[in-house]
Amino acid sequence: MTLSKDNDLEWIRYWAGWYAQRHGADALVVYDNGSTAYSTGDLVETLAGTVGVAVAAVVEWPFTYGPQGFEPYRTWDSNYAQHGALEHARWRLLRRAAGMVNADIDELMLDPEGRSVFDATTASRSGALSVPSTLLHPAPGAVLGRPRHSDSYFERVEREPTDPKWCVVPSRLPAVAQLGIHGVVGVRMDRAPGFRLGHFYAITTNWATGDRIAAHADLSSSKVDTEFRSRFAGEVASVGVAEPASQRLSARVSRTASRAASAARERVKRSTFGAALRRRR
Which end of the chain is more exposed for a tag (fewer CB within 10 A), N or C? Predict the structure, then answer.
């Protein structure tokens, strides 16, 4: 699940496809925080067209996000909209889900061996997995139009601080546990070797800060993240000119699941959140 406002639908399509095809997610929930760039129906249709997804839901969540954590203390304790969405999803929609990932549209989880984060979480001691994060940037000096996830596979040699995200099995959490943005309070979380998260700094509407692309496009010292680069390279067609990542994903959907996507959209229209999302994989 994720909280989103006005993120590009192609970014959302790619994010949905990544978790469905690489981790086996078969239900997607997006809390829409008052988008004006498109309608709720457009967002539902984008999610429902994802290969492998049986249920997609958009929750209209028009609440004020809350103040940011500013210097000198960087205290983040009042971002009400996101904390509320996490607990609403846990208790109202996903109590019986086999797994629940918390990841923004600019965050993709990866295991070099191709394992599913849901399987790793199920196998963990606590049913709560913390996934460490790496900030990823476009090539040094790159000039981007509309950025794509696959444009960004460079990281600073001197590692930048960034916070983890998580995956949980909701039914295994103690009732008193509280879902946080970067962890779960009241649970000793586990880690699974190899699993990590790419935080794609150029995938942003700059809603919270200044221009992240301009501020980070020219890295003075960087290196290639070979794991993410190899995954992106694996998506390129074997012949011809590589299409943009979003077009490749759209083409894959249209070739293999156009009728399935149409049927999924009809199921979404008829379904209710409570009934549809209490599925076990």
Answer: C
* Contact criterion met (CB below 8 Å) for 162 and 74: no
Per-domain residue ranges for the chain? 2-276
Q: What is the pTM of this model?
A: 0.79
Which runs of E-coded beta strand occur in the chain?
A: 2-4, 27-32, 55-60, 100-102, 107-110, 128-131, 133-138, 152-156, 165-168, 178-179, 184-185, 196-200, 222-224
- Are 30 and 16 within 8 A, CB to CB? no
CA angle at 222 for the pair 219 and 228, rounded to the nearest 5°: 115
> pLDDT tens, position by position, for the chain (281 residues)?
999 999 999 999 999 999 999 999 999 999 999 999 999 999 999 999 999 999 999 999 999 887 766 665 556 667 788 999 999 999 999 999 999 999 999 999 999 999 999 999 999 999 999 999 999 988 776 766 788 999 899 998 887 878 999 999 999 999 999 999 999 999 999 999 999 999 998 898 874 554 555 545 455 688 899 999 999 987 743 222 223 333 333 333 333 233 333 443 444 333 333 333 333 44
For the chain, what's the residue count? 281
Fold of 2-276: Spore Coat Polysaccharide Biosynthesis Protein SpsA; Chain A (3.90.550)
Q: What is the DSSP letter of 94?
A: -
> Does residue 145 sit in helix, strand or coil?
coil
